[in-house]
Task: inverse folding
């Protein structure tokens, strides 16, 4: 700009066309920003996109699984670029537009600062030279500059917050799409990171805010430094400029030496914050259980310990900061100011000496009338130079200070970037679970499947090396496009530490075929792997096999295989009838109305779009013995904390009503009626069967056997053995008791499908024994219970007699 390319000449300021250019640029920018030009952008980008699974799979290549170091090196640049791709996908987005507007205002602010510095000098000069007219003009210009200045400042703040919000929204949407993926990824179920809520809420927010801020915090002071230095260099001359740069160099050296690793500190702080947050969340969620155990004091201890760990860390950051901030304050405020005074003094003193010398020479020859006015002019010009340069130097010191803060902020951004990159690369690098075969759409079959506890995909020695050249991201991308897909290890979200063990195979070579009407009961003692079988059937865990041809999976050497015929699952019907529906052990209640409890995972809008009516739901509730619920709770739209409002049995009955609503072909019921009385339980089972639902029930209650046609017993003898028998009809079991638990060798019948294992006398001896032992154990526990009842009956009798 011409105004700054010339040496300082206050009279030129704003007078020439070129001098007015910054103001014209400013006014034009303001007009453009407020004009209709931006309206199409506003409307087009008001909503952020959703990402399909295939888009996400392609994106995985940008998130190779590398150890995220929270420093400012090359990995940080790569990680930041990967994240910026999400929040700033192209130049034709609202974010890019906001960034351009933000940058423009930042440049304008610097331009205005220089104009203010010049004007400042001019006003003081006019004052010193008693130029009233010039002074008043300067004052008028001062107010004229104030308007764009304050507008610019508030726009910078506004654009920065809007940008931060847009970044947060884009990143959150991306993470939601990635994290809440359905099969075959099920990332929300398998992600092995602790405190995931902290990552998705606080970390994303803090990152978006810091990144939007860091741009301004870095760009503005850098621009200031550049322009102010160039301006100063003109009046300071070569020597002054060199001194200025020496000053910068020394500052950078000192501050670099005393700057702690803010990035690492910020990452640790975020982790500890997450742990504390998770602790508070757990107590809130499980408050009733805690209250029953009267565990308040214990929970307080746990939370206090977690909190103190966090606070200790934050305190240590504060302490580390003290030394840094002392140095920073000293260097930026005092050292720079002192250097500034020195630099201003150089031209002034030199000019003064020269002019004094010139005065001596002049004095000899021509002492005239205009001598006094010339001296006044020199003083006025000198004052102006001093005021302008001093203002520029103060701004320079301020810019330097902000740049130092920005360096600290940058390190914190590095810490947060590292954490978010870890989250995204972990989510991206969970390989898909094997897809099941669909068969005829109505069959459930397992063929020679080992049920084993999956290993941690991130710590497994069998995982491909997480290097950029052969990253898991690349693997999973290939998997997404290739058939068959190699199976993946899976794990529960919060249990990554418990995933390895010497023997993780729970059931070996499980083979069974279920067709509609073949109601299966899975039984066996606690911890033998009943729910694990359900997880494989439901597709949450990959089926394993001991075949040596197949890729590795379990930690005990058992290997998983590509999908061939390991698992066949019933498919959903075109009319929306699901192939499989699982009711888990622990009831789940989403937030929302009573209606949304029944129809979950459908939404209310899906329900209203479907032909189903509320009256039909009332019938379903009646069948689940919950007919009174709608009136009691104040209608279908009542919104409550259902987890607390409903009793244990009611929650389980409500889950059964949910099952009736979805009416799947197969239902996996994992001890989901344990709190319901036997008679109601029986009626609910019969109703499910009447709706055409084939039951796969996990239970330890022998009384439930009669609602099933087949029984899978996991023997729990440590070898992973099992038996799969047809349950004898009461006639076949004459004299053996109604539940028909013990089917002797040779009595079980294979089904027509042939998937069922036929028991022969030779191969079932050991299994039969195991089953009988299991039955003895069950019956013994019942006898034990009956003793308690007898005792109670006696007590009641005695009580009655006494009265
Ligand atoms: N995600 C996991 N990580 C580590 N171990 C697991 C995991 N899930 C299950 N297990 C272990 O696998 C074994 C079988 O668990 P599972 O839940 O299938 O038992 P279960 O037969 O259903 O028992 P119960 O009748 O008590 O419900 C248990 O020893 C359990 O500790």
Result:
């Amino acid at each position: 700009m011409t105004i700054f390319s010339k040496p300082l000449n206050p009279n030129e300021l704003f007078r020439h066309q070129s001098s007015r250019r910054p103001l014209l640029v400013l006014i034009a920018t303001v007009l453009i920003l407020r004009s209709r030009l931006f309206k199409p952008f506003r409307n087009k980008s008001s909503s952020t996109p959703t990402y399909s699974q295939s888009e996400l799979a392609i994106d995985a290549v940008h998130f190779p699984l590398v150890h995220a170091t929270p420093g400012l090196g090359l990995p940080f640049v790569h990680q930041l670029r990967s994240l910026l791709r999400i929040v700033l996908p192209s130049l034709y987005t609202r974010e890019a537009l906001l960034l351009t507007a933000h940058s423009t205002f930042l440049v304008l602010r610097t331009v205005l600062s220089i104009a203010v510095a010049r004007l400042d000098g001019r006003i003081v000069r006019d004052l010193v030279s008693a130029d009233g007219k010039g002074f008043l003009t300067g004052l008028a210009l001062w107010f004229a500059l104030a308007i764009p200045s304050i507008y610019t400042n508030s726009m910078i703040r506004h654009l920065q917050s809007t940008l931060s919000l847009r970044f947060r929204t884009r990143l959150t949407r991306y993470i939601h799409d990635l994290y809440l993926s359905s099969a075959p990824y099920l990332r929300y179920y398998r992600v092995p990171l602790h405190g995931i809520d902290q990552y998705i809420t606080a970390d994303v927010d803090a990152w978006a805010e810091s990144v939007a801020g860091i741009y301004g915090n870095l760009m503005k002071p850098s621009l200031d430094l550049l322009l102010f230095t160039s301006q100063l260099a003109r009046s300071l001359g070569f020597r002054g400029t060199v001194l200025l740069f020496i000053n910068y160099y020394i500052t950078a050296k000192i501050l670099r030496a005393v700057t702690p690793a803010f990035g690492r500190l910020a990452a640790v702080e975020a982790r500890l914050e997450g742990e504390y947050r998770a602790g508070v969340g757990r107590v809130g969620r499980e408050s009733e259980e805690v209250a029953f155990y009267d565990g308040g004091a214990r929970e307080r201890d746990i939370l206090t310990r977690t909190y103190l760990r966090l606070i200790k860390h934050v305190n240590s950051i504060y302490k580390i900061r003290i030394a840094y901030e002392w140095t920073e304050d000293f260097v930026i405020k005092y050292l720079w100011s002192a250097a500034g005074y020195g630099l201003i003094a150089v031209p002034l003193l030199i000019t003064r000496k020269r002019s004094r010398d010139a005065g001596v020479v002049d004095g000899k020859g021509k002492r005239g009338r205009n001598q006094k006015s010339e001296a006044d002019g020199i003083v006025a010009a000198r004052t102006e130079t001093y005021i302008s340069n001093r203002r520029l130097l103060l701004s320079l010191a301020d810019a330097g200070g902000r740049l130092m803060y920005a360096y600290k902020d940058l390190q914190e951004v590095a810490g947060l970037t590292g954490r978010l990159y870890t989250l995204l690369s972990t989510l991206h690098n969970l390989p898909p679970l094997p897809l099941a075969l669909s068969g005829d759409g109505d069959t459930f079959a397992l063929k020679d499947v080992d049920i084993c506890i999956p290993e941690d995909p991130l710590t497994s020695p069998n995982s491909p090396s997480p290097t950029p050249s052969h990253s898991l991201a690349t693997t999973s991308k290939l998997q997404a496009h290739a058939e068959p897909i190699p199976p993946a290890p899976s794990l529960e979200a919060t249990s990554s530490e418990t995933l390895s063990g010497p023997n993780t195979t729970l059931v070996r070579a499980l083979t069974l075929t279920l067709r509609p009407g073949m109601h299966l009961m899975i039984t066996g003692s606690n911890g033998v792997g009943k729910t694990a079988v359900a997880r494989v059937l439901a597709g949450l865990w990959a089926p394993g096999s001991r075949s040596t041809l197949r890729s590795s999976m379990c930690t005990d050497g058992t290997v998983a295989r590509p999908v061939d015929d390991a698992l066949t699952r019933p498919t959903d019907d075109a009319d929306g009838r699901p192939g499989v529906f699982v009711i888990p052990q622990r009831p789940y209640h989403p937030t929302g109305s009573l209606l949304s409890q029944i129809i979950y995972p459908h939404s209310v809008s899906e329900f209203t779009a479907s032909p189903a009516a509320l009256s039909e739901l009332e019938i379903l509730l009646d069948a689940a013995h919950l007919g009174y619920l709608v009136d009691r709770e104040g209608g279908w739209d009542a919104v409550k904390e259902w987890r607390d409002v409903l009793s244990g049995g009611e929650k389980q009955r409500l889950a059964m009503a949910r099952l009736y609503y979805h009416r799947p072909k197969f239902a996996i019921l994992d001890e989901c009626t344990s709190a319901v009385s036997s008679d109601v339980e029986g009626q609910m089972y019969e109703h499910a069967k009447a709706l055409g639902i084939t039951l796969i029930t996990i239970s330890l209650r022998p009384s439930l056997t009669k609602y099933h046609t087949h029984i899978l017993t996991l023997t729990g003898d440590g070898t992973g053995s099992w038996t799969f028998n047809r349950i004898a009809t009461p006639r076949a079991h004459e004299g053996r008791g109604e539940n028909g638990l013990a089917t002797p060798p040779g009595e079980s019948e294979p089904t027509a499908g042939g998937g069922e294992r036929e028991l022969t006398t030779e191969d079932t001896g050991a299994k039969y024994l195991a089953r009988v032992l299991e039955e003895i154990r069950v019956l013994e526990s019942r006898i034990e219970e009956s003793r308690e009842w007898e005792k109670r009956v006696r007590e009641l009798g005695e009580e009655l007699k006494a009265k």
Summary: The mean pLDDT is 77. The first strand starts at residue 444 and ends at 452. The first helix runs from residue 2 to 5.
